[in-house]
Amino acid sequence: MKTLKDLLYRCRIARIAGSTDIPVDEVISDSRRAEKNKVFIAVKGTQTDGHIYIADVISKGVKAIVCETIPDKTEPDVTYIEVKDSAETLAIMAGNYFDNPSSEIHLIGITGTNGKTTIATLLYQLFLQAGFKVGLISTVRNMINNLEIPATHTTPDPMALNQLLREMVLDGCEYCFMEVSSHAIVQQRIAGLSFRGGVFSNLTHDHLDYHKTFDAYLKAKKSFFDKLPSTAFALTNIDDRNGLVMVQNTKAVVKTLAVKKQSDFHCRILENHFDGLQLSINGKEVWCRLVGNFNAYNLLSIYATAEMLGLTEEECLTGLSRLVPVDGRFEYMKSPTGVIGIVDYAHTPDALLNVISTINAIREGAGKLITVVGAGGNRDKTKRPIMASIAAENSTLTILTSDNPRNEDPDEILKEMMTGVTVDRKKATLLISDRRQAIRVACTMADSGDIILVAGKGHETYQEIKGTKHHFDDREELKEALAINNNQNQ
After folding, report:
1. Which of 93, 101, 139, 417 sits a CA distance of 20 to 30 A from 449?
2. Domains and CATH numbers, the chain
3. 347: alpha, beta or left? (left if phi > 0; alpha if psi -120 to 50)
4. Predicted confidence band at 490 (pLDDT cuts at 50, 70, 90)?
5. What is the pTM of this model?
């Protein structure tokens, strides 16, 4: 069992009242889990302030309190630690509790608006296939070698995160590839972690319900690179207008990638088909099973990261050629009648435009593109009309539908989306709030050679309505609807 003193290593402490030589068997920030021998961190969250529960946890036997303001009334047998930032302290103490596992593994953080899951997952896939023991922390799943651990957040809370890293180290993992969300950065969930490298994919409109302004969103992402040490690398996409901004204050070794500009790692798209991409990376050609210009950036990021971690050029190229798409990212299916179905996680304006542009660049003949898309409830409302506009302007037919409405009225969300559709595109735009029905209608409207894009949910296997998650999988629904359509055409 560790002592409070052990857990305070590297924490920014303003004041201590009481002894730090007391035993601690767990670090908590949830007052409901309070009991003897636990240290309680009072964190100011988005929903509640942990400071209001200090008296409650003390009544349950807690003898160590970490807070930003020591209460006016204190208990003589309780130790109070005043710190500048409780959330940061929680993360550092969590690392200390698990003996700082991130220092024993090559931890690579991938951040940006789009591409995080693909880059992290495919790096994991590449290194695993190359014979290494590898961990993955992502939106879709967490992996310790071949063992899957369900993911509940893009970036877990500090205790869960450090426990996961410790388990990776114990299982012999040499590398871990981790998505780093802007929420996790702002909420200090990654504070105290030792990163071997950071990767920036791109920055577009998203999460403004949380960050309020694009500048705040940018600064959140940038702060990840600001804190990288000189022993790390910072790989950035300089075709993105904020690519160099991300690394302008970093101590890490900066490396650049681009498709359009001169860079340390450069690629050209030679061929782009529904079955893959032919790329030239730093002058060497490789065929990959991922589709679209946006995936050229993802693949280049993977190549560059793998090379900087010590793989040879041949190992990197061979690895890229073996990679398979991530669940719910441009998943492609074709019905016996010749209708192509695509499911993609695109839930931001830029991601949606990338996917639709890719489809339009590849599709042949006079086939229609029918796009089914929605927008989540209780999230950034400003992107709703933008996404509807992108879908309507770039698709033959558009069906606006429910995504995860959460606690909002789906019909009201669709009305807000519809404000982005111009008068001349309204006749080619349908509003069907029932997502299952929307997918089925799209399939009944499709003929041989047509393409149906179902965007927004990708790998998700649920739909959240009024606080309840109901089973719903776009891939299952589209396959079933295409089968229904096939039967109708026979």
Report:
1. 417
2. 2-96 (3.40.1390.10), 98-322 (3.40.1190.10), 331-489 (3.90.190.20)
3. alpha
4. very low
5. 0.85
